[in-house]
Amino acid sequence: MSGNTDQLNDIFTKFLHGKKLFVDRQVLRPDFIPTNLPHRGTQLSRIAKIMGPVLTGTRGSNIFIYGKTGTGKTAVVKFVLNHLLKVSNQMGAPVKYCYVNCRLTGTIYRVIIKLGESVGLKIPFTGLATSEVFDRFENALELNQVLLIVVLDEIDALIKNHGDNLIYELTRVNETLKNAKVSIIGISNDLLFKDLLDPRVLSSLGEEEVVFRPYTALELKDILLERAKIAFHENVVDTGVINLCSALAAAEHGDARRALDLLRVAGEIAERDNENKVLEVHVRYAQNKIEQDRVSLVLKTLPIHSKLVLCSIYLLQKAAVENVITGDVYEVYSKICNDLNMEPLTQRRVSGLINELDISGIVNARLVNFGRYGRTKKIRLGVSTSIISSAFSDDSSIERVLTYTPAFFKKS
Ligand code: ADP
Ligand code: MG
């Protein structure tokens, strides 16, 4: 082969390889369930032991599971139940399970529709009373003589928005049914959520409790190593990259989802740059991008007056006004409201909104002593001006506010 052919082959191989870092990027997605879950053996076997009795026709105890996001709760529960279902199918045991993500499903009515569907009911999406749908669900359970395991994932979202009535009804179903049984697995990301529950509901839902602690950096490393093996081609990801993803996610709150996101986004950045390896610098970029996406989502979903308060701080900062205090922000904010034909909130309310923005890190409000003003807050943006303008770019009236010049708010 001629030198030039070698040269071209080299280029094309690199090119192809550069485009093909991933074997299968889906395995880094949060809903992928791997065939092995390192460091969750204890939780896995406890849940299996508690639910095991359904194989012999008795009910498993209700379980209340909690732990922060990304600690493997959903993955472990689905893993155990998929396996349980496989075994029960082989035996011909009448076991079914119904998985509902309460946050995504949204309303009590829709949750009950899902419960009904799991026992073969077809329920219209509107038009029936919730209690009627629940009755039909109970009848279908009894008729089909099933042992149903109901998984209510992110149950805290349901109860915060709609109360614990449904959970109460579900825990009582076993008292009326003769030929069917229901076990509930409730999963919560919010550790303080127990406080919201009625003691009666808590005692029946929490017959057993399983806690998922945050992962350490070393545990995350094991998880990532296994996943990287099936997600990427060989030699694409070095240990240094895995270590960095693990360390960053461990510093967050031991969140495996964050660790996997970092690795996936880093891989996508490397691919876009036509690299043939994922490097630590790509992980740093990924960290940045994920953080920016998070901030951007928070900004986009702010209530309108918070947006306007933030715009005021943005304008003051752009105009290089120093030592901005609440009064300055309020003055600009009032003028903006005026300009948009909106009724401004009181200064007290605006001060409260500034506090909220401060808590979420979007602005920094530092208490200082200002002589004749007494104690007041010195306010600055906590995020870059560019991220604000890009987050607000799909809202034309806010976008226009951001272009106001100092002349607009300096003249009174
Ligand atoms: P949670 O429900 O606690 O928020 P998930 O179960 O959704 O967390 O896990 C988040 C991500 O991390 C998923 O992609 C999941 O597959 C992965 N994951 C969590 N724990 C493990 C583990 N022990 N081994 C492998 N992957 C895991
Ligand atoms: Mg989950």
Furnish the topology, listing elements before pairings.
Blueprint: H1 3-19, H2 41-51, E1 63-67, H3 73-91, E2 95-101, H4 102-105, H5 108-118, H6 130-144, E3 147-153, H7 155-162, H8 165-176, E4 181-188, H9 199-205, E5 208-212, H10 217-231, H11 239-252, H12 256-272, H13 280-300, H14 304-318, H15 326-339, H16 347-359, E6 363-369, E7 375-381, H17 385-391, H18 396-401, H19 406-410
Parallel strand pairs: 1-4, 1-5, 2-3, 3-4
Antiparallel strand pairs: 6-7
Bound molecules: adenosine-5'-diphosphate and magnesium ion.
Protein model, in words:
The structure is a single chain. It contains 19 helices and seven strands. The chain is an alpha/beta fold and 412 residues long. The protein folds into three domains: 41-212, P-loop containing nucleotide triphosphate hydrolases (Rossmann fold, 3-Layer(aba) Sandwich), CATH 3.40.50.300; 215-299, Helicase, Ruva Protein, domain 3, CATH 1.10.8.60; 302-410, Winged helix-like DNA-binding domain superfamily/Winged helix DNA-binding domain (Arc Repressor Mutant, subunit A, Orthogonal Bundle), CATH 1.10.10. A hairpin with a 5-residue loop joins strand 6 and strand 7. Helix 10 (217-231) packs across helix 11, helix 13 packs across helix 17 and helix 14 packs across helix 15. The longest helix has 21 residues, at 280-300. The radius of gyration is 27 Å and the shape is globular. The mean pLDDT is 91. Bound molecules: adenosine-5'-diphosphate and magnesium ion. Magnesium ion is lined by residues 73-74, 153.
